[in-house]
Amino acid sequence: MLELRHLCKAYTNGRQVLSNLSWQFAPGEYVAIMGESGVGKSTLLNIIAGLDTPDSGEVVVDGVTISALDDDAATRLRGEKFGFIFQAFHILPHLNLLQNIGLPLLLNSLPQERAGQMLAAVGLDGRGTDFPRQLSGGELQRVAIARALVHRPRLLLADEPTGNLDPETAHGVQQLLREEIKASGATAILVTHSPAAAASADRVLVLGRDGLRPA
Longest Cα pair distance anywhere in the chain, in angstroms? Predict the structure, then answer.
């Protein structure tokens, strides 16, 4: 489903973070990536998402090379097949919670009923008309998780998705992520510093100077 081919990436200061990195992720596989700060975990996630470009190498999703697509085609692919949970949330302040969660459904011409189901699944039932300014950081993170899962993406990319949640809520969200991933057959990549979050994955990889390796 996802293949990384010989990815190389250096920061603007010249420091190499990814060097000839190659790996294949199977359909339905839920993988946690761990590693020390600064090794390039978030950078790798952004490259897979097409939000950053490698200096060399390719990212292939369902047989399609991301770098070979023009901007419009890449945007369509991300909207149809990708789900994103990033640390900055990117919740739209002028939309209420149901509208935020339902946005991927709207963009893909899918029924909106699942937005309410996902709102309830992350513990925010009855708050669909609230706006982001009324929520705590942890609640905003739960909205971001619901939005990422609502359209049943083929590829889910999550950067510390439980980082702002209390342990009990984090455990519930980890269970929800796993259930949704397995139900939809999606491939999921979770970047985390949390051993508890990583334990919910099928396998754990460690990103280091020598690339990815099993934990």
Answer: 50
Q: How far apart are CA 34 and CA 173, in angstroms?
A: 19
**Strand ordering across the sheet containing 30-34:** 82-85, 155-159, 187-191, 30-34, 203-208, 211-214
Query: Domain limits of the chain?
Result: 2-214
Site of tokens 């790996």: 23
How far is 201 from 67, CA to CA, in rounded Å? 28
Tens-binned pLDDT, residue by residue, of the chain (215 aa): 899 999 999 988 888 999 999 999 998 899 999 999 889 999 999 999 888 999 999 999 989 999 888 889 999 999 999 999 987 788 999 999 999 999 999 999 999 999 999 999 889 999 999 999 999 888 998 899 899 999 999 999 999 888 878 888 888 888 888 888 888 888 999 999 889 899 999 999 999 988 899 99
Find, among 131, 127, 52, 43, the residue nearest to 93 by Cα: 131
The H or E element that residue 203 is part of is strand 203-208
Sign of CA dihedral 67, 22, 35, 78: positive
Question: Cα separation of 201 and 191, whole Å?
Answer: 11
What is the CATH number that goes with domain 2-214? 3.40.50.300
Distance CA 80, CA 82 (A): 6
